[in-house]
């Protein structure tokens, strides 16, 4: 297993619980585990290790929301997402840990900035603009594909797209659940092909899986009680700290 100090295991444990919560209660909240994993592990290793835990969380999201997906939206996104995934894989394959680490930091800060801008615009106008058409789908899809391959950080991108489409809550959750379940499984052979799923990574994930399960069950119980605004502020604040740490 990867040799880490106790405090680093604590960070990974917090990230694992947050994965479960994000998958079942807080769409887009998975940006925090990205920052936490990349802050204590080599950048490429963090991407691979986090992916397997995200797939575990996807299983719980599908159990809860699988019947509410809007498949036309997923099919509209598919071509652009595939292009983004391939571009992200090429970047991940040729970039060293230092480059990928800084790229993750930049991606996280960019996602936070765009998310805050979207919320500010929505507060001023009362409702987000509707993003219909293939142009919007292509832009969001390509960015989602690239960010999810490089940093597992497509949550805010997809949240922006579904909100811009004025997607009802249950359809939002169901469509997001299927999107990430399909995309994350699709990414596995690519990362395996460049040797990122070695024995230590698999053992570490095996130790963290129970915490993802705990977080998922907690998220299912708290989904209707948790104050979204408070949780969002915590996620954004900690993610900014993690992203700045990755950059400097």
UniProtKB/TrEMBL annotation:
Coiled-coil portions: none
One GO CC term on file: plasma membrane
Residue spans crossing the bilayer: 46-65, 77-94, 100-117, 202-223, 230-247
Signal peptide as annotated in the record: none
Primary location group: membrane
Keyword rRNA-binding in record: no
Membrane topology, from the record: Multi-pass membrane protein
Domain of life: Bacteria
Localization annotation: Cell membrane
Pfam families in the cross-refs: TauE (PF01925)
Assigned protein family: Belongs to the 4-toluene sulfonate uptake permease (TSUP) (TC 2.A.102) family.
Protein name: Probable membrane transporter protein
Organism: Microbacterium ginsengiterrae
Higher taxonomy: Bacteria, Bacillati, Actinomycetota, Actinomycetes, Micrococcales
């Amino acid at each position: 297993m990867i040799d880490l100090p106790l405090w680093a295991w604590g960070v990974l444990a917090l990230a694992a619980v947050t994965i479960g919560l994000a998958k079942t209660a807080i769409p887009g909240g998975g940006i925090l585990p990205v920052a936490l994993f990349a802050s204590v592990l080599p950048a490429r290793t963090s991407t691979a290790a986090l992916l397997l835990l995200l797939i575990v969380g996807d299983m719980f999201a599908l159990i809860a929301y699988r019947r509410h997906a809007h498949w036309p939206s997923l099919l509209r996104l598919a071509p652009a997402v595939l292009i983004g995934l391939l571009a992200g894989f090429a970047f991940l394959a040729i970039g060293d840990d230092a480059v990928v680490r800084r790229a993750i930091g930049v991606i996280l800060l960019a996602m936070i900035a765009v998310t805050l801008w979207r919320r500010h615009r929505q507060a001023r106008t009362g409702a987000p603009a509707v993003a219909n058409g293939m142009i919007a789908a292509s832009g969001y899809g390509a960015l989602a594909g690239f960010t999810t391959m490089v940093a597992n950080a497509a949550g805010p991108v997809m949240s922006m797209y579904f909100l811009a489409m004025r997607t009802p809550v249950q359809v939002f959750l169901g469509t997001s659940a299927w999107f990430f379940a399909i995309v994350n499984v699709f990414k596995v052979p690519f990362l395996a092909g460049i040797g990122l799923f070695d024995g230590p990574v698999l053992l570490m994930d095996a130790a963290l899986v129970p915490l993802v399960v705990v977080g998922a069950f907690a998220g299912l119980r708290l989904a209707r009680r948790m104050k979204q605004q408070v949780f969002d502020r915590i996620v954004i604040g900690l993610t900014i700290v993690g992203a700045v740490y990755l950059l400097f």
